[in-house]
Amino acid sequence: MQQIWDAAGMVLQFIWTHLVILNGIFAIIIVFFQRKDPKTVWTWLMLLYFIPVLGFVFYLFLGADMHKRRMFKTKEIEDKLNEAIRQQENQIKNNELQRQIPDIEGFSDLVMFNLDTVGAMLSGNNDIDIYVDGNTKFGALLEDMRNAEKFIHIQYYIIKDDVLFQRVKDVLREKAAQGVQIRILYDAMGCRSVKRRCWKELNRLGIRTAEFFPARMRQLHLRINYRNHRKIVVIDNKTAYVGGFNIGKEYIGLDPKFGYWRDTHLRLKGEAVLGLELRFLMDWNYGAGENLLLENQYLSGIEPGKRDFCNVQIIYSGPDTSLQPVRDNYVRLINKAEHKIYIQTPYFIPDEALLTSLLIAIYSGVEVNLMIPCKPDHPFVYWATYSYMGELVMAGANCYTYDGGFLHSKGLIVDDKVFCYGTANMDIRSFALNFEVNAVVYDEKKAQEMIGYFTDDLRHCTRITKDMYAGRSLPLRIKEQISRLLSPLL
After folding, report:
1. Above 70 in pLDDT, residue 8?
2. Which pLDDT does position 32 carry in this prediction?
3. Strand runs (DSSP E) across 10-72, as ranges?
4. pLDDT at 222
5. Residue 67: left (phi > 0), alpha (psi -120 to 50), or beta?
6. How confident is the model at residue 55 (pLDDT cuts 50, 70, 90)?
7. Which pLDDT value is given to residue 487?
8. Catalytic residue, candidates 103, 133, 161, 236
9. How far is Cα 192 from Cα 186, in angstroms, rounded to an integer?
């Protein structure tokens, strides 16, 4: 035993005496072998300076770059997609699409950007239902599941094995017995509290489950910083859901810690369903190793909507791409705003491009309205959010804290014409680290409906004035500054 202690002591002594050299090597790895934003690099170097060696261990778990490698291959359908995309791009260049679809007037460049970067086809003839209450959303979802005839594809970042998931499982158990094919894709970090026996139980019922970025050796998450934050459900390619609600009792207002949960989810019927199904199939292929792209039933059966005739693009982003399409959509929409901008987000930690765009909009006379929660679920993230919100307040934006519960809604509305809502928060993590999916909707009537929900929320809000923000306490100022300094890591 003494020999073991002596050997350990020698190792520690070696590390201590060579600490400067080790830190230098780690710094070189961070600076020269990982392409990152300079602010993020400096934050990691500062952490390495104050917490030698251990700081690099944190970096391995939280900061290592995925090299933007392509994780999702769609060779089976790329040729068909590329042909359709080129046709739509040519229609935009020749002004044909603008004449056919008046709703995209003034936004054809954004449509083109989405086509070129993520292959997001502009789909028409979509019906859209907007849900801002968890009980209403899950009531509709469960009813659609009960009506499933062929398949149900489910993907959520967080699934908790509680009263809400029990309701979902009851319906899935019934549909599996009827021969409906059911697949559930879940994120390893978001669902880490769910016992393995839960998934095994579903497997025994004939329900396929797959884990995205599973832990090594059961508990060791080497890719803890990369999370599949998408929430997608597709049923028979007739109906699809995307938005902010996960599966857990707090999302239907049953957790006293949060109270009422205010979120936004979209139910789609029409051509946009195919965009969400393709996204699910690609994620499933990666997580489960099962390629369903060659099976026609999963790419057919789309029925056009008959009520709203909305035009929609399904966009997505993740650390496997060199661009940040969701962030870039936000920036482009903000830059195109002429009158009003409405933003709801639980976490507001913008990068320089987004923050500058908002400040330019404010100083150009555009009315900017920002709504964030009144309570934190992640303290450091909340204090950083409050700091960035304060910058907009002092510039002249209308900023509000939602007091009616917890605000988890994620999206942006521009000029009563276009909105972009989905799973992405307005923060650096969602832009660069998480796998996200949003719907861009070009429809004045639906945009005004979304503004109506924002306006209703104002009845439960406190407006943060310049005087209120300037008069905040010293402890809060300190929390803000520390959290803002760490914001590239949050």
Report:
1. no
2. 44
3. none
4. 52
5. left
6. very low
7. 63
8. 236
9. 10
Q: Are 145 and 207 in contact (CB under 8 A)?
A: no
Tokens of 320: 């496997």
Torsion on CA atoms 246, 252, 255, 257, rounded to nearest 10: 80
Beta strands 418-422 and 348-349 are unpaired
Q: Which of 160, 175, 410, 479 is catalytic?
A: 410
State the pairing for strand pair 232-235/261-269.
Answer: unpaired
Nearest to 344 by CA among 455, 486, 465: 455
Q: Which of 408, 417, 446, 479 is catalytic?
A: 408
Quote the CA–CA distance of 159 and 31 in Å, as a whole number: 37
269, 239 Cβ separation under 8 angstroms? yes
Q: What gap in Å lies between CA 139 and CA 129, rounded to an integer?
A: 13
How much is the pLDDT for 13?
63
The predicted structure's pLDDT at residue 33: 46
Of residues 137, 169, 221, 229, which has the active-site annotation? 229
Q: Is 229 a catalytic residue?
A: yes
Q: Rounded mean pLDDT of 43-64? A: 49
**CATH architecture for residues 128-307:** 2-Layer Sandwich (3.30)
Marked catalytic residue, from 231, 238, 265, 269: 231
Please, are residues 315 and 438 in contact by the beta-carbon 8 Å criterion?
Answer: yes
CB 245 within 8 A of CB 251: yes
Between 11 and 374, residue with greater pLDDT: 374
In angstroms, rounded to a whole number, what is the distance separating the alpha carbons of residues 348 and 264?
Answer: 17
- The ranges of the chain annotated as CATH 3.30.870.10 are 128-307
Q: How many residues does the chain have?
A: 490
Does the annotation count 37 as an active-site position?
Answer: no
Residue owning tokens 């520690």:
12
Q: Which of 211, 206, 224, 187 is nearest to 288 (CA)?
A: 211
Higher-confidence position of 98 and 206: 206
In the residue annotation, 415 being an active-site residue is answered as yes
Of 349, 340, 346, nearest in space to 372 by CA: 346
- Establish whether 231 is a catalytic residue: yes
| Active-site residue, 446 included | no
Per the annotation, the verdict on 410 as an active-site residue is yes
- Pick the catalytic residue: 351, 415, 443, 457? 415
